[in-house]
Design a protein that fits this description.
mainly beta, Phosphatidylethanolamine-binding Protein, seven-stranded mixed beta sheet, three-stranded antiparallel beta sheet, 10 strands, about 30% strand, binds 2-acetamido-2-deoxy-beta-D-glucopyranose, PEBP, peptidase inhibitor activity, Uu.00g011440.m01.CDS01, PEBP_euk, phospholipid binding
Length: about 230
């Protein structure tokens, strides 16, 4: 079976950091500095989501998360807590320069808050806000301008919990990540449900989505984030 990384390979010459990938892989996506994938990575680093929440990675997909036409995630915009009460609609589409489409793979969506109760004192971090999986992907061939991808058949592992930052705790980062199985399996996934939202059930301060994804054989392929804070500061 072709591994996930094989299908999404980037030539070692373009991205030295990925030079460890086997040489026989067929390149289908070339990400050059300045491209959209690097822009997303840059924003994740600027907000210290890389490396606090997730290890460095280059996204293969754009992640759109939208609560309403005016309220959506845009790599670090600030939303009112009231605007994010309902479960957002989440879509992914291949990032420009990438043809990373794998419609036989199950994708997993997560939302995590690494700033609980505050970014200065994250002793409850991370808080798990959402896990959903069992996602199938279909290409929208009628839209040639941008191949959009529809996630369907979402199965919730941890139901959506809306942002609820306590008063006087400043801005919290709410981080959206989409994962794919690291070994490229097209089998249905048997993911674990964290025993608790706090510390993603690990009981260890600072533990969260990175540890859960590693335990479940998942690797990140897309990210987005918003900030939200209590009105009372
Ligand atoms: C596919 O793309 C077209 C054109 O953008 C859009 O009108 C349609 O709603 C899309 N279909 C799905 C299932 O997303
Ligand atoms: C998950 O469990 C099912 C049923 O036991 C099995 O068929 C499938 O291969 C498992 N998936 C993985 C990725 O191990
Ligand atoms: C892929 O990874 C899953 C989860 O770690 C594991 O259960 C499964 O056996 C692996 N499948 C293959 C073909 O390596």
């Amino acid at each position: 079976m072709a591994s996930y990384l094989t299908r999404f390979a980037i030539p070692a010459s373009a991205v030295p950091v990925l030079a460890a990938l086997p040489a026989e892989q067929k390149p289908i996506a070339v990400q050059v500095p300045g491209s959209e994938a690097y822009k997303v990575q840059h924003e994740l680093k600027k907000a210290e989501i890389i490396p606090t929440v997730i290890n460095e990675f280059l996204p293969s997909f754009v992640l759109d998360a939208k609560w309403s036409s005016d309220n959506y995630a845009d790599l670090g915009n600030t939303l009112k807590v009231d605007a994010a009460q309902d479960e957002p609609s989440i879509k992914i589409h291949p990032i420009s320069g990438s043809s990373a489409l794998a419609d036989d793979v199950t994708y997993t969506i997560t939302i995590t808050d690494p700033d609980a109760p505050s970014r200065d004192d994250p002793k409850w971090s991370e808080i798990c806000h959402f896990i959903a999986t069992g996602v199938s992907v279909s290409t929208n061939i009628s839209d040639s301008s941008s191949e959009s991808v529809t996630l369907s058949g979402l199965k919730e592992i941890m139901p959506y919990k809306a942002p609820g930052p306590p008063p006087k705790t400043g801005k919290h980062r709410y981080v959206f990540l989409v994962f794919a199985p690291a070994n490229g399996t097209s089998d249905s996934l048997n993911l674990t449900k964290p025993a608790d939202r706090k510390h993603w059930g690990t009981g260890k301060e600072g533990n969260g989505v990175r540890d859960w994804a590693l335990d479940n054989g998942l690797e990140p392929v897309a990210a987005n984030f918003i900030y939200a804070q209590n009105e009372e500061q």
